[in-house]
Design brief:
Low-confidence stretches: none
CATH architecture of the largest domain: Sandwich
Order of helices and strands: HHEEEEEEEEEEEEEEE
Mean pLDDT: 80
Strand content: 35-45%
Number of strands: 15
Shape: elongated
CATH class of the largest domain: Mainly Beta
Structural class: mainly beta
Number of helices: 2
Number of domains: 2
């Protein structure tokens, strides 16, 4: 008795196409169909209708933003125009470099006005802030910080020999995360997403969410915000920060 290999048999005496060939042909037709998965409750239609689509943090580039979306982009090409203390200089195209060593100076910092971040202008809008930072340390006593806000309200990142912390401060009430592993000497991308819809603030590093906490009224309290970047070192220690590219936009 002969052994029939059904998968290799033609569909009929008048059609030599095998089942595998038919499947491959139909898949190709489906992949070439621009209307595939666009019907009601199908995947592409649901994706398009989502208010927030799950793209990795920092993956949306500026030319994809709406013309009606208030946006600010700063590459820090003129740090001399900002308020500075200690050792602060331009380091390459769009890089701001801060440095301290063995208490000399004790702290170096830069303050950059961000009038764009004014909740009086956009009290109910979500805001996204992206930036890049590289922290380099030597010795055992050092710290750095990136703070965005005003004199009473702010949020950002704190770096020390124990790691990195995320924090939010509102009228001197501070919520701060546990230490998060942070690789010094390597450039990292950071994102802060303030969601008035969720009443929460989310912190990301290299595209991964590392912390979140409630806003408790924060969304409408920042006026005439500034960016503060600083670094400090103790005895027989050194620390430096390279800060580049700040992008911020409101969701409208």
């Amino acid at each position: 008795m002969s052994v029939e290999t059904w998968g290799e048999m033609p569909k009929s005496q008048i059609d030599s196409e095998t089942p595998e060939q038919a499947i491959a042909r139909l898949i190709a037709v489906h992949e070439a169909d621009p209307e595939a998965h666009t019907g009601e409750n199908e995947s592409l239609q649901a994706h398009r209708q989502n208010e927030i689509i799950d793209h990795p943090a920092s993956s949306i580039i500026p030319d994809k933003f709406s013309n009606n979306q208030p946006t600010m982009l700063n590459f820090f090409t003129s740090p001399s125009t900002y308020t500075t203390h200690g050792s602060v200089a331009q380091s390459g195209n769009g890089l701001v470099y801060l440095y301290t060593t063995n208490h000399s100076p004790v702290v170096s910092d830069i303050q950059i006005p961000l009038p764009f971040l004014d909740a009086q202008l956009y009290p109910n809008n979500d805001v996204v802030i992206d930036f890049a930072l590289r922290f380099i340390k030597g010795g055992s006593t050092y710290s750095a910080s990136v703070i965005i806000g005003d004199s009473s309200c702010g949020f950002g990142f704190l770096i020390s020999q124990s790691g990195l912390k995320c924090f939010i401060n509102i009228d001197d009430t501070q919520v701060i995360s546990d230490y998060i592993t942070f690789q010094d000497g390597t450039a990292h991308s950071f994102r802060v997403f303030i969601s008035n819809v969720d009443s929460a603030i989310y912190f990301y590093m290299d595209g991964v969410q590392i912390y979140s906490t409630a806003l408790f009224g924060f969304g409408t309290q920042i006026y005439d915000a500034s960016l503060y970047v600083s670094t400090a070192s103790g005895s027989n220690s050194s620390s430096s920060v390279e800060f580049s590219m700040l992008r911020a936009y409101y969701k409208v």
